[in-house]
Amino acid sequence: MRSEGKFYDDKNFPRGFNRSGVFTISETSVLENYGRSMRALFDGTTQPIDDSEVQFLAEVQGQQEAVSEFGKCWIKYLNHTSHKTRSYTLCVSQRAHTTGSYGEDDDSDSGTDNDLDY
């Protein structure tokens, strides 16, 4: 695989690949050193010139199982950049209470004092 300079993705990994917590040290090295070549091959802007690049293309296009370090790393990169991540929280929203939800014991007044005995 040829190296065409350092590869950075400031949009998806603004603090760098190594600080993202997604990639290992060796995967970070592969992405930074060969990422430009891998992206160009994946996009089709350059053609493969050796067997490792042909194998890489076959792996990322799903024609064969990813066994090379380049293929595994690029597929992992694509999975983290192309799929939206959903995060779930355990807080209750501040919307109006509806019947049958958490607001069954609703103490809100309806504007009358009919419940009070004086």
UniProtKB/TrEMBL annotation:
Q: Which InterPro entries match?
A: DUF413
Q: Where is this region: Disordered?
A: 97-118
Q: Name one Pfam family in it.
A: DUF413
Point to the regions of Acidic residues compositional bias.
103-118
Q: In terms of domain of life, where is this protein from?
A: Bacteria
Similarity section: Belongs to the MaoP family.
Its recorded name reads: Macrodomain Ori protein
Please give the organism.
Photobacterium aquimaris
